[in-house]
Design brief:
This protein is mainly α. It contains four helices and two strands. It has one domain. Strands 1-2 form a two-stranded antiparallel ribbon. The structure holds zinc ion (2 copies).
Length: about 110
């Protein structure tokens, strides 16, 4: 892993600063997803905290269509390893969560 790669990862992580999102908006995003991660579908809890991801990687773009709640694991997997995530309401007929599973089983 070279330094440039590390830098990009840090940049991408910081660019999704979850602190910048109002609690009410955050709640809306989580509720519309049924309190489940937008990638692996696990339920959020204190032991499975949610993070708000910006689909276009622009932390200032807080339009609901640009926001997706992910569990900390999926969020990190997306930014670090490029595991694909899809906007809410995306047709999940293909096995998005098995892609996630395959990653964890590696
Ligand atoms: Zn997840
Ligand atoms: Zn993110």
């Amino acid at each position: 892993m070279n330094n440039m790669y590390v830098y990009i990862v840090i940049y991408l992580t910081l660019s999704c600063d979850v602190q910048g999102i109002q609690q009410s908006l955050r709640n809306k995003v989580v509720v519309r997803q049924g309190n489940a991660c937008g990638l692996c579908n696990c339920n959020f809890s204190k032991m499975m905290p949610h993070e708000i991801h910006h689909l276009n990687h622009n932390p200032k773009d807080n339009r609901p269509s640009n926001l997706l709640a992910l569990c900390a694991n999926c969020h990190t997997a997306h930014h670090r390893f490029g595991i694909p995530v899809y906007p809410f309401n995306y047709n999940y007929s293909t096995n998005v969560s098995s892609a996630c599973k395959a990653y964890y089983e590696q």
